[in-house]
Design brief:
This protein is about 25% helix and about 45% strand. The protein is α+β, with helices and mostly antiparallel strands and about 240 residues long. The chain has a domain of about 160 residues: Sandwich (Immunoglobulin-like), CATH 2.60.40. Strands 3, 4, 5, 6, 8, 9, 10 and 11 form an 8-stranded antiparallel beta sheet that branches. The chain starts with 17 loop residues before the first helix and ends with a strand. It is a single-pass membrane protein.
Length: about 240
């Protein structure tokens, strides 16, 4: 019986080398890189913080507005009122060398119209002028202004041998010929509002009065300035800004 003849094995045959194939696959494959974390979470947190901050500010504004409304209905606050009661011009001389000598007395009435609100004033500083010619300054001590009360403040403004330019000299000579000098004043102070034992912070107050006519040659007699008008402004300072 003839022996079976088996075919010879192919050169390089044998079981496949999986290890080598795996190494080749790993070498050709790109390295794994983790993706960057999404910014959505951070944006969400930022939006939430902004939302809560806006909500807190809105609530605070509502509370402040409610407190202001309650205060207004309880106390009905009114701003103080000021008016010029009298003015007298005892001295008014223009020298040949373009110099001015003047002496003016004024009485200003301060009135507190409130029934429950007391004003506590710092000293007052008054500046007087005619046109663009300064006539001098004076002051009045601070005081406590009771409810529904009026206080008369007296000022004496003196100007000695003050130099004036040609344009100012012409305006002063014209007023001298008309026997009437139109004055303007500015009154500055600080005030606190007081209710019981509670006090507010200090607020700047500026009083501006225009149209004050003083008679020249009246020998110092008081006259009532019927055309005078006074405006009161609260000057609230926020950082470097004055409102």
């Amino acid at each position: 019986m003839a022996d079976r003849v088996y075919p010879a094995a192919k050169p390089g045959g044998g079981p496949p080398n999986f290890t080598t194939k795996a190494q080749l696959y790993g070498a050709t494959r790109a390295a794994y890189r983790p993706t960057a974390p999404s910014h959505r979470y951070r944006r969400s947190r930022c939006c939430s913080c902004c939302l809560w901050l806006s909500l807190v500010i809105l609530i605070l504004l509502i509370l402040v507005a409610a407190a202001a409304a309650v205060f207004y209905f309880l106390y009905r606050p009114h701003a103080p009122a000021f008016s010029v009661s009298s003015v007298s011009l005892s001295t008014f001389n223009l020298t040949k060398g373009s110099h001015l000598n003047s002496e003016i007395s004024l009485q200003i009435n301060a009135r507190n119209p409130n029934k429950k609100l007391v004003y506590v004033y710092d000293p007052f500083e008054l500046s007087l002028s005619t046109g663009d010619v300064p006539l001098g300054q004076d002051s009045f001590p601070g005081f406590v202004h009771g409810t529904q009360n009026s206080t008369l403040m007296k000022f004496d403004v003196k100007n000695s041998n003050a130099a004036v330019d040609s344009a100012q000299l012409g305006a002063l000579q014209s007023a001298q010929n008309k026997k009437s000098l139109e004055l303007s004043l500015r009154l500055d102070t600080k005030v606190r509002a007081k209710v019981g034992s509670a006090k507010s912070g200090k607020i700047r107050v500026r009083v501006s009065c225009d149209g004050i006519n003083a008679a020249i040659g009246g020998k110092g007699k008081d006259s009532s300035p019927f055309g005078a008008k006074c405006d009161v402004k609260l000057r609230i300072k926020i950082f470097k800004w004055v409102l």
